Amino acid sequence: MRRIRKSSIVSYSHYGHTKVPNTIQTSCPTCRKTSSFSLKANYQKSKNGFLTEGTCSSCKKDSTFVMILKGVPDDTGNPIDVYIYDPHSSKQPINQLEQLPDIPPDLVRAYRSALNIYQWKDNAATAVMSKRVIESIYKHFAGAKGNGQPLSEQSEQIVENLDLVKPIRYLDLLLRPENPFYEILELEKELDDETAAHLMDLLENLIDYLFVLPGNIEITYTNIQQNSK
Q: Which of 82, 68, 109, 86 is nearest to 5 (CA)?
């Protein structure tokens, strides 16, 4: 499920005494284009909200929308949270890997196998498949120099080949005065709904990359060290 930002709701209507979205502009789960969705009025009502469908203006496919009633309206008086069913929006790495270009197929296969085996509580096989995932990651970044070397000796090649600063370079390009995005941040150019959504994605990814991910890896490392003694 992907939450719909209030800025993506183009118009509203009423269902009984409840103000509900009528038109929403967001990324389509099917064609991935930012499109307009006209929500159907045949709501399926439950105790906690509504369920309906909306048709993508680009590919004409229907998507499911969920509107959850909040116990207390937010500071804007909005009584509902709106979500679209989008399997691609999951934060699970396996779903994100399959959407990215240049991801080694053997890494995707190994990671999927590791996840499946872990679900079956086969700890020995989980250890084996986890090692294969790490080997695939190292192979991708260490290149030919890592062939035949133990994993413990491939770290130097990874440090040489992996550009961890690259995401910050993209941010630097956006923040340069000659970039139109700079004018948006300085309020010299209007920010449209689609770019606003991309801006929120940028902030989320930056926080994940610079703060959340390193912190989680450090915590996981400490937990593994403690449990391995």
A: 82
Answer for the pair 79, 73: CB distance below 8 angstroms, yes or no: yes
Confidence band for 75, pLDDT divided at 50, 70 and 90: very low
Tokens 């689609």: give the residue: 194
For the chain, the domain total comes to 3
The CA-atom distances, in angstroms, between 76 and each of 72, 79, 116, 141 are 11, 9, 44, 48
Residue 219 one-letter amino acid:
I
- Say if residue 154 is in the same domain as residue 174: no
28-65 pLDDT, tens digit per residue, is 988 888 899 999 988 888 878 889 999 999 999 999 99
- The first and second tokens of residue 48, run together, are 């906690």
Q: Determine the structural domain holding residue 220 and report its residue range.
A: 163-229
Q: Give the list of residues 6+ apart from residue 199 with CB closer than 8 angstroms, or none.
A: 191
Q: CA-to-CA distance for 130 and 68, rounded, in angstroms?
A: 38
